[in-house]
Design a protein that fits this description.
The chain is mostly helical and 184 residues long. It has helices spanning 6-16, 18-26, 30-53, 59-82, 88-111, 121-141, 148-183. It contains 7 helices and no strands.
């Protein structure tokens, strides 16, 4: 192992922490869930800082980091939907968007050109909104009751940013594919 591998190991740890987060959620141990979620969030910032600050960025890290984020968020959405804390339709929309992006990226990579994708600003906003929804729902169920209007507003904000960012990816990558096929 070399120092440049540390960000990737942190991302792998973040993927692994998904299992205890799901376990804690299923047992409705919301305090434990919040602590684990905080550790995952800190590790996300740490691996990004180390990769950028020390030049330890890698192609593998480019896949592991978003995979770790998605594994944690999608798992939390599934469990919170299962427990009835967020609507099933929102879980379905979030999952559909992520599957659409993965399928589109895979098709683009193997049929058009090598994929060097980076998240759009809308996608970053969507991820932030999803994280906030998970955190606030867990907080609402555990430590403190939050106004239902606030949670409903956040549910709709996640829905809008999920749909808009998904459509944005389809639009951008469809245009890139068309441009690449025209120049071939």
């Amino acid at each position: 192992m070399q120092p440049k591998d540390i960000p990737n190991l942190i991302s792998i740890m973040r993927i692994c922490i998904t299992v205890p987060v799901v376990w804690a959620l299923l047992h409705e141990w919301y305090g434990v869930t919040l602590v684990l979620f905080a550790i995952a969030g800190f590790s996300d910032g740490l691996d990004g800082f180390l990769a950028k600050h020390y030049g330890w960025e890698s192609r593998l890290g480019g896949y592991l980091d978003p995979l770790a984020d998605k594994a944690l968020l999608v798992s939390c959405f599934f469990v919170l939907g299962w427990l009835g804390h967020i609507p099933y339709w929102l879980v379905a929309v979030v999952l559909f968007r992520d599957l659409l992006i993965v399928a589109g990226a895979t098709a683009y990579h193997f049929q058009v050109a090598r994929l060097d994708a980076s998240p759009s600003l809308l996608s970053k906003l969507n991820t932030f909104m999803q994280i906030m929804l998970v955190l606030l729902v867990v907080l609402d169920k555990g430590a403190m009751s939050l106004p239902s209007e606030m949670l409903q507003g956040l549910i709709w904000a996640v829905f809008v940013t999920t749909v808009v960012s998904g459509v944005g990816y389809v639009w951008v990558w469809s245009r890139r594919a068309a441009i690449n096929s025209d120049s071939s």
